[in-house]
Design brief:
- By secondary structure, the protein is α+β, with helices and mostly antiparallel strands.
- About 30% of the residues lie in helices and about 25% in strands.
- It contains 16 helices and 29 strands.
- A 5-stranded antiparallel beta sheet has the order 2-3-4-5-29.
- The N and C termini lie far apart (about 70 Å).
């Protein structure tokens, strides 16, 4: 195989433009690892074959941006939830919509198919979890208990339990038929992003923004491991198929963990940014991520990754013995394995429960006629690639209905081709070929220029068509190519970008004096690259010096003094750096800290930088969660008799905080009207700040 001729452990498989606007969610088919669904702000769901940049099918019907998407176990159906709370299920083999489910009142945040049977679980910003029977209208059960948005759902392999992870830092385990909580795990200190059951044993894993992955014993309902090697929030987790280790995906890295004792077997740098989903197939791990309108897929060769060994985290005694083989799993003697009942029995049990609880309160269900009319008039499945569609969803062998299970591993690019690819790419930019300009990409305002040979050969790059006009005019080109008519330049500078702000490819390839594009010498290319480098170094040095000053104040005094020092520097970047630290440690927060931070949050929420807005939103959520009840109760309390200086000071601080929160509430309401992920974040804040309007 090609993969055998390289020493690469991880590589990028491809990058392509997936939607005409920003991509908001991704999901891989877990059974095959070869199918990908993407949802976008263009209200579409697109289906792709991994490693191919041609869309197989485009599903329409949603009227609002798609926020969440998921395949069922057999990969014959896909479900998508929108910003408005509606859910649509499509049959991919029949290329038609199956069901529209209405009931949630806010953004859909997570979806999951039951491992067998026609059941579906959904969660929303409204904090509710609902269980649906896809064959009927209206939900079967509603599970209430979380206080903030639910971010992940997972069914147990035997189909009896449902696990949910939430921004309220908890993981809950639900009994599907009883409709009540079995237990709640509270050891995480930040939002829990992902949850997954072990494929065989009574184990549950959860990954959190507190940068830890925790493992829970589902017989004793206790934590058996806390894996804290990640340096950024844990975004995806996946057990190996045999259950011998756990893969943890974070920003630009993959870690392989063992437990009992807690161990980190390996850490693999992967350039996938904020990875959105993982799947394992053919001894390879597939990871997908998105930024703006493009989607990237990455491959990690698991044959070259350590999945056993002696690397130990958190000072636990070193264990030089590898994990035992799947033939005799370690946990078999320690805990039970799931017993998977027959599909019909399980379906019948849930069905009996559903008949008793089928009434949907609060008028959340629409009439069947309305749903059917919407399905027929608004929804469609547009097949763009007939050959791939027939190969994957309508194969000749009727038994094998999923994407081909006997598939070759993805080949790694040869090591020595990278430099050649860079040279070919630069040559293409300098002398744009006419045939590369004939078919513009879906979003030509987002140039994607990459160096791996697999990408150069298969991705339609908008760079040549975007840069070409600069060579035809003698004057130097003006920075951004805003002449594109397809999409206006966004006002907000996103935290994840395809290229640095202010960088223009044409600056690196200036036209020669005779008005013809010529190759640059090494010295000329270096001088272009080093433009502004000295200025950036001065800025970063100044920022580093300021942070050292703040750190010294923190060590000498306290966090309040350090934050006051940061604010006095009139540099929001310093404030953001400090907030990013204390947001992970709620125990550091005090009421007088809120009086200092709230005016800064006002500035952050109005910033043009998405990362600043995200930090401000996180801080505001923390204040509302931990201090709102104190502020409300203090302001509502009857005046005390006599002089109580401490109480007066606390009352004054609460009054100041309340006034600032009211101002922020008005801003949040205005921004919640936006469409897209920013509007989604502010809608969540609006729900969280609703008690402020009701109480005062």
């Amino acid at each position: 195989m090609a993969a055998a001729n390289t020493t690469k452990i991880s590589w990028r498989l491809q990058e392509f433009e997936a939607h005409s606007s920003s991509v908001s969610c991704l999901a891989l088919g877990k059974s095959s690892g070869r199918l990908l669904a993407t949802g976008g702000e263009d209200c579409r769901v697109n289906i792709w074959a991994v490693s191919k940049a041609n869309c197989i099918m485009s599903l329409t019907g949603h009227k609002n941006p798609v926020e969440c998407v998921q395949f069922n176990m057999s990969e014959e159906q896909v479900v998508a939830g929108s910003q408005s709370g509606s859910i649509r299920v499509w049959d991919l083999e029949a290329a038609k919509i199956l069901r529209t489910l209405m009931g949630h009142k806010a953004n859909i945040t997570s979806l999951g198919f039951h491992p067998f049977g026609d059941f579906l679980a959904s969660s929303s910003m409204d904090t509710n979890i609902k269980l649906w029977d896809v064959r009927r209208k209206g939900y079967v059960f509603r599970y209430k208990g979380h206080t903030q948005a639910v971010r992940s759902l997972a069914f147990s392999p035997d189909g009896k339990w449902l696990a949910s992870a939430s921004d309220d830092c908890t993981v809950k385990l639900w009994d599907l038929t009883q409709g009540k909580t079995i237990t709640e795990f509270r050891s995480h200190t930040a939002a829990v992003n992902i949850v997954q059951f072990h494929p065989n044993e009574y184990l549950l894993a959860s990954g959190s923004s507190d940068r830890s992955t925790k493992l829970w014993d589902l017989e004793k309902f206790s934590m058996i491991g806390s894996l804290e090697g990640d340096t950024s929030p844990v975004r995806c987790i996946s057990f190996s198929p045999d259950g011998s280790c756990l893969f943890s995906g974070a920003t630009d890295s993959l870690r392989v963990y063992g437990w009992e004792p807690d161990r980190c077997f390996d850490m693999v740098p992967v350039g996938w940014g904020k990875v959105s989903d993982l799947a394992v197939c053919n001894q390879q791990l597939i990871g997908v991520s998105h930024q703006l309108s493009s989607v990237s897929s990455y491959v990690v060769d698991l044959k070259r990754v350590k999945k056993s060994g002696s690397s130990v985290i958190q000072g636990i005694i070193q264990d030089n013995q590898p994990l035992t083989e799947p033939k005799d799993p370690r946990g078999a003697a320690l805990r039970r394995n799931y017993e998977r009942p027959a599909t019909t029995c399980s379906s019948q049990r849930v069905k009996q429960s559903s008949d008793a609880d089928r009434r949907s309160p609060e008028g959340e269900r629409r009439s069947p006629s309305e749903d059917e009319a919407d399905d027929k008039n608004m929804s469609s499945a547009e097949i763009h690639n007939t050959e791939d569609y027939k190969e994957i969803f309508q194969p000749k062998n009727a038994i094998s209905r999923t994407p081909p299970k006997i598939s070759e591993p993805f080949p790694a690019p040869p090591e020595d081709e990278t430099v050649l690819a860079i040279g070919r790419q630069l040559k293409d930019m300098i002398v744009p070929l006419p045939d590369k300009q004939l078919t513009p990409p879906l979003a030509s305002s987002t140039p994607v220029q990459r160096v791996e040979p697999t990408v150069v050969s298969c991705v339609k790059r908008p760079a040549p068509s975007a840069v070409a006009p600069a060579f035809s005019d003698p004057p130097p080109p003006q920075p951004p190519v805003t002449a594109t008519k397809t999409k206006p330049q966004p006002k907000i500078i996103l935290s994840t970008r395809n290229e640095p702000i202010g960088l223009n490819v044409a600056d690196f390839l200036p036209p020669s004096p005779n008005n013809r594009a010529g190759a640059l010498s090494d010295e000329e290319a270096l001088s272009q690259i080093k433009k502004g480098h000295d200025t950036m170094c001065v800025m970063l040095s100044s920022r580093h010096k300021n942070l050292q000053t703040v750190r010294a104040v923190w060590a000498r005094e306290d966090i309040k003094g350090a934050l006051d020092t940061a604010v006095s520097m009139n540099d929001l970047s310093i404030v953001v750096d400090i907030l990013n630290i204390i947001n992970l440690q709620p125990s550091l927060w005090k009421l007088d800290l809120c009086t200092t931070i709230l005016p800064q949050i006002d500035k952050l929420l109005q910033s043009k930088y998405e990362s600043y807005m995200q930090t401000g939103c996180t801080s505001l959520k923390l204040i509302m969660k931990h201090f709102w009840m104190l502020i409300s109760d203090t302001l509502k309390a009857t005046p005390s008799v006599g002089v109580d200086i401490t109480r007066e000071e606390r009352h004054h601080k609460c009054r100041v905080c309340c006034k600032q929160l009211k101002n922020l509430s008005n801003m949040v309401k205005n921004k919640a009207a936006q469409v897209g992920r920013h509007g989604s974040a502010f809608k969540e804040l609006q729900l969280l700040m609703a008690p402020l309007d009701d109480s005062l």
